[in-house]
Design brief:
The chain is an alpha/beta fold and 422 residues long. It has helices at residues 2-7, 25-32, 51-64, 88-100, 121-129, 145-155, 170-177, 183-190, 204-227, 232-244, 252-261, 268-280, 310-315, 323-337, 374-385, 414-417, and strands at 40-44, 72-76, 108-113, 136-142, 160-164, 284-291, 296-306, 341-347, 350-358, 361-367, 392-397, 409-413. The strands form two sheets. The chain has a seven-stranded mixed beta sheet. Helix 4 (88-100) links the parallel strand 2 (72-76) and strand 3 (108-113). Helix 10 (232-244) crosses helix 12 (268-280). The model has no long low-confidence stretch (mean pLDDT 94).
Length: 422
């Protein structure tokens, strides 16, 4: 394995400092809290949202804090140079060779990118995490929720901490593009998306090709190949249906009826399964309904949101999706990135866009493009006014100016106060 270590040297920090991209401080600070713990650090999220860059940023920060570069080992299973690592035995052999080269008993730092591409990876990771003879800190990334939750729950119970990584926020977009924090900048972001690579591309055509390539990788490689899907067209059409119905309550039965009307064969079980696969690869998220008065999750209809609006903006431009729905999508992604459990609120026949909960904190949120007209303002405020508890209530819009608080309800401009992570 010594020759393999030499082969992968250019991907590591041993003799140079690879590109680390825009520092994503929100994630780095959260992960750093567990730096001295032997818990396995698991970064999950859709492909191409920047998990690899965050791993390299962690390595860079460790080196800046005094860790010797040769205490770190970075493995990325998306590069062909790492094809010699096929299973847990190959991974174990490489890591043991790496550890043998350490000149003294130091803390070792192992980073494995897209770990699900290694057969039985969990056995090797579990072994390293429990090896009391070697102080080793482990960081892994993966692009499949089912894979990680399944194997981790079985083999690493209670010995890992996970972090959901999402695309660039509005504030990160401003830094990358060197733009002022204005409404026009926000509208530009809304019509683009947050996939990091988009900002390196020169024109709209290349962006469309890139987003389409990401989509094909997620659909064909992460779902179709993994689950041996036969009806690929149905899978893609279900995703298109979700894109066209972001922010709308839908049910599996409604999809069955939709495809039946199109004279397509699609039963309840298949559609439910395919939706689950799309969720597993983090390309969509399901937001369930929450009965505020009864404090319970409601079955039946749910809402779906996209991991990134670039899929709508560059692949389904013919679909009409209003500014308000697109903003709603952004707010949902930001809330789950902040660590909230997020639901659609239901109260006496009224719907609140989001009930966000974290610990003992609850926020009720309405999202609208603008509420400058009296009728729109009254419609958006009514569900919040119906809630009779003292939790925080917010209306988020893209108006030019924020209105004064009304009966405890805050009016916040997304482009001014949101678009970042705390």
């Amino acid at each position: 394995m010594i020759e393999n270590i030499a082969k992968i040297a250019r991907f590591n920090f041993w003799d140079q400092k690879p590109e680390i991209g825009l520092k994503r401080s929100h994630y780095l600070s959260k992960i750093k809290k567990f730096q001295d713990s032997r818990l396995i650090h698991v970064l999950v999220g859709q492909r191409r949202v920047g998990k690899s860059y965050i791993l390299r940023q962690i390595i860079s920060d460790l080196i800046d804090s005094g860790v010797h570069p040769k205490q770190t080992l970075y493995i990325n299973k998306e590069f062909s140079e790492f094809d010699f690592i096929q299973n847990e035995a190959d991974l174990s052999s490489l890591v043991r060779s790496f550890l043998d080269q350490m000149t003294e008993k130091q803390t070792a730092y192992l980073f494995v990118d897209e770990v699900q591409n290694i057969i039985s990876w969990e056995k090797a990771i579990n072994s390293f995490s429990q090896d009391f003879t070697q102080d080793i800190r482990i960081y892994i990334t993966g692009s499949n929720a089912e894979l990680l939750s399944g194997e981790l729950a079985t083999h690493l119970s209670g010995r890992y901490v996970s972090f959901l990584i999402t695309p660039f926020s509005f504030n990160e977009y401003l830094v990358i593009k060197q733009l002022p924090k204005t409404k026009n900048s926000f509208l530009s972001y809304l019509q683009t998306g947050g996939l990091p690579e988009l900002y390196r591309l020169p024109d709209e055509e290349s962006k469309r090709h890139y987003v389409s390539a990401v989509y094909d990788t997620v659909i064909l490689r992460d779902i179709v190949q993994r689950h041996q899907i036969r009806d690929v067209r149905l899978l893609k059409d279900i995703f298109a249906f979700v894109v066209n119905n972001v922010g709308n309550l839908i049910s599996i039965n409604s999809l069955v009826s939709y495809f039946k009307h199109q004279q397509r064969k699609a039963n309840y079980e298949t559609i439910a399964q395919y939706l689950g696969y799309l969720e597993d690869v983090y390309i969509i998220y399901r937001c369930e309904r929450f009965q505020i008065k009864g404090k319970e999750i409601l079955s039946g209809t749910v809402k779906y949101y996209l991991n990134d609006l670039s899929f709508k903006n560059y692949m389904f431009q013919g679909f009409h999706l209003g500014w308000g729905y697109m903003m709603e999508n952004l707010v949902y992604i930001e809330l789950i990135s902040r660590g909230y459990d997020v639901y659609v609120g239901q109260l006496r026949g009224k719907e609140i866009d989001f009930v966000a909960q974290k610990g003992d904190k609850t926020i009720y949120i309405q999202v609208a493009y603008q509420i400058s007209e009296e009728e729109t303002k009254n419609r958006e405020l009514a569900p919040l006014l119906a809630v009779d508890d003292n939790y925080e209530k917010i209306v988020i819009t893209a108006d030019d100016l924020a209105l004064p608080n009304f009966e405890g309800i805050q009016h916040t401009l997304y482009w001014e106060k949101w678009g970042g992570l705390d």
